[in-house]
């Protein structure tokens, strides 16, 4: 199929589809360069910052994340927040441990229609075996569109 | 950029990347044909069934959904479950109403490494203004990898 | 103060208060006899049954559990469900382990005004270090008034 | 039964039981005086403060709130937090509306063995039909023992 793609398929894409493919290909590039550590964060063009306390992630809200109502899919909102929380948990975890989500609770408080959103994660409880982290996401205009808390387990890293 | 893509970029993709692009392009096709109603469900190759009570969605677990630990990203698991719940809610809702997620709680009970997962949604409470729905996801081997409950609001459909 | 109580205080109680005191004193009795294992379950007159799979608890809905709106307090509903879940978790746990709630999520789906409610608990996931349990509560009329899921950690029992 | 109680029953109570009865009777007093608006908050000797932003509730941790492991029952922790959240919601709500809990999620982060705990509630999202509120509870020593978020519906007040 990829040959077909290469020669004619892409020409037939509509504008949304072209933008998605472009975003995905740029994501591949950022994954190869190590800026993204997964295809998920790469494809959604997530970029993160950590100020020592709060970890934040930005991502553009384009048709790639829309649900059938034309707003950001609640699952992708969860993905942005869970990614921010997971990155924070792994930054805080001892070097021989990895943190994995054991539970995640989200409240959706406003729809997201576009622009660049920013997801935040901040520690609530730091135990020896688990952590509780709060996270939230804000629109361009600074409106909180979702608020979450999550539990993370610490597991031994694979050698 | 798309011209560059068309002529040479795709040849340089590695095997995972080619598979992702192929899955995305097939998703575009299924969205055009109306089989998928959003790019999110299209790109993740979600297919749904409804037996009148339980709505289920299948999706392949490929690198497109991996987190940095090489297992299915918790946010994408949430996306599959939320999609199943949301589709069920909208099937049950009165014809002039749309159902949107107001709250989602997930327990992750096992990692998912591959194969085809199936997410399920089933009604717990059906009120006039809101619904509570339970959802879960199972691996190929029938193991429950996550269990969730969600609250859905009914809003007026845009005319 | 107890002497005052003994001699005159109780005569001045109104009907609701007398009923509460009576329920509390009966609870003390059931705790002494080992039917209740805590003052909480004793005072709320909880009685449990276990059929090998589902653990259920009954309790009367009297003014002792009302909130300021005259319906069963959401926290006491949580107490009934958490107690059923915790009892189930401890029945299932290895004999040298105790199970404690690490997380609890509740959806309230109908108000409870009286009668005898029954709270249920059923296992969703049984891991070596933790469990996920679902619980719900039904009114006399069989209406589901709340639905919950909880996570339980297994800790070493004190010797 | 109350006559029996009055004359001899109370003399036979053990120390814990006497303290519980005393706490309950004091609670009745505070409910009559309108300091407590329900038997639940009265019996647990809850006292609240509101600084215009955060509503907090104190309560003593005595055997009346213990679970069978001798620590504060998770359901009673939920009751303290839900009460603080509900009081806050009702302070903020329009005067013709009452706020009722529709969903509550709690993370338990440390056991509580005694002293006076303080539960807090703070608004996260204030919508026209619902609110999201965060709550937490701290031990005497200032340790966060639980963290929660809840959703509240606004319903018309009974006239």
Structure description:
Chains A, B, C, D: Residues 70-143 form the Thioesterase domain. Four copies of one chain form a homotetramer. By secondary structure, chain A is an alpha+beta fold. Chain A has helices at residues 2-9, 15-32, 39-43, 74-92; strands at 47-50, 55-60, 97-108, 116-126, 130-138, 144-156. The mean pLDDT of chain A is 93. In chain A, a hairpin with a 5-residue loop joins β5 (130-138) and β6 (144-156). Chain A has a six-stranded antiparallel β-sheet with strand order 1-2-4-5-6-3, with helices on one face. Chain A folds into two domains: 1-43, no CATH class; 46-156, Hotdog Thioesterase (Thiol Ester Dehydrase, Chain A, Roll), CATH 3.10.129. The interface between A and D is medium-sized, with 13 and 13 residues.
Overall residue-averaged pLDDT value of chain A: 93
Strand content of chain A: 25-35%
Terminal CA distance of chain A reads 38 Å
Oligomer: homotetramer
Broad structural category of chain A: alpha+beta
CATH architecture of the largest domain in chain A: Roll
Helical residue percent of chain A? 25-40%
Spans of chain A with pLDDT under 50 lasting ≥5 residues? none
Write the layout of secondary structure elements.
The structure is a homotetramer of 159-residue chains.
Chain A: H1 2-9, H2 15-32, H3 39-43, E1 47-50, E2 55-60, H4 74-92, E3 97-108, E4 116-126, E5 130-138, E6 144-156
Antiparallel strand pairs in A: 1-2, 2-4, 3-6, 4-5, 5-6
Task: Give a nutshell description of this structure.
The first copy, chain A, has helices at residues 2-9, 15-32, 39-43, 74-92, and strands at 47-50, 55-60, 97-108, 116-126, 130-138, 144-156.
